[in-house]
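Honest question from a wet-lab person: if I give you the sequences of every part of a complex, can you actually get the arrangement of the whole thing, not just the pieces? Trying it with mine:
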Amino acid sequence: MKIVLIGAGNVATHLGRKLVEVGHEVGQIFSRDLQKAKLLGELLAAAQVTSDLDEITNQADLYIIAVHDDAIGEVAGHLAKIGLDGKLIVHTSGATPMQVFAEAAPGLNHVGVFYPLQTFSKIRQPNFQQIPICVDAQMPEDLMLLQHLGNQLSDQVYHINDEQRATLHLAAVFVNNFTNHLFAIGENILKEGNLSFQLLLPLIRETVGKLEDGSPAAMQTGPAIRYDVETIRRHLLQLEGQPGLQEIYQLLTKSIQQTQ
Amino acid sequence: MKIVLIGAGNVATHLGRKLVEVGHEVGQIFSRDLQKAKLLGELLAAAQVTSDLDEITNQADLYIIAVHDDAIGEVAGHLAKIGLDGKLIVHTSGATPMQVFAEAAPGLNHVGVFYPLQTFSKIRQPNFQQIPICVDAQMPEDLMLLQHLGNQLSDQVYHINDEQRATLHLAAVFVNNFTNHLFAIGENILKEGNLSFQLLLPLIRETVGKLEDGSPAAMQTGPAIRYDVETIRRHLLQLEGQPGLQEIYQLLTKSIQQTQ
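Yes, you can. This is the full assembly:
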């Protein structure tokens, strides 16, 4: 397929790279930042790059919108204007309903979602084969096409509707964004004691490794679940002067105890 | 060395197994639960097992107390009574200061700590070589002995004093216990949407994988750090009827935003 990539961030980069790898052609790349578009264009051997939405070609088969959530509607509105009858347009956002197209660009019928459930970063090369790809589309034939495309990239392709994707995205915030913040808090606590965060890495890896064996709820350990009042008291004392951390400690401790 | 293991839980089991593997002899195992002592005794080919503290032999070189934190003092008091002059006694707790010995058993001089910084579970075989072992001792010669012993089990042995160990343990609660609870929350959110927790595993693995590349604080992503008010509002709406989760969501979002 001939693909237009709208966006040149981490999702566009890694998704584009994988699409080219399996034999698709990225014909054009749009980014507001022309320099970013050029860089990604070189990487993906794209014929054209542009920073002007009006210059987006109508000669491709698939348009992938991989921009910030709050810009998806605006981009879709632009695409509706350039005459893309019969062309398939998808966004890659976990947080944005497919409904965004009906609202921002009611003229577009062939719309869908192609959401890789993963966190992408500049320097890490993801193993796409293991990334769940959540697809949805307005039209059944487009859904089939996206499922087929997904299967070229990954072993895990799921038809996930707006409500399910919203649920997934909410859960992802807890297990990815919030978890990473707990890691940052741990790092900070160690820094104040002149200790290296490296000391905690084996523990963190094992915390995740254990998930292979069963439900996290069933494997909860620590002072909260043991109602070890003395240790909890001492920890809160150690966090004196850091009311924000004390509050997080107390709230998560209470939540663990109420989860049983 | 001839070792007495006091406790037959996960720490005693995995530590005991590794000690035997590198050539030490576990001469006796104590557990309040005789059945557990027997089971571990068979696994480690221990000569004796007992559920009576008074039956603990005074013929060993090293006594490892791997019982619940709040029982360490009591066990130490007992050991002081059976005449262990010159024998080394350590506990394996991250949450308990070495000071516990001076308080509960002032007669014991050869005391220390041998704390493997890891979460142990019944069914998973830990890779001991990569577990940081935090040692401390009252006497310099005992510290050397514990460092030597640690090096037989792991590539990472550190002299960590009471204050540092308390800091490590507090940070471990955030990155292990609290993180696992966030996983449990994520699982619960998916369950209510009839979605499998398996969908989140690649994301969770990558969240941890990224730690190899840099500080978690520098790699924070998600709606909180982007001040994506619209997504945050929608997530809180999705959590309606779950005030506990709304509170956690808001508190961690605020904490992420204040961390910059």
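Two things worth pointing out. Strands of chain A lie at 2-6, 25-30, 48-50, 62-65, 88-91, 111-116, 133-137, 157-159. The mean pLDDT of chain A is 95.
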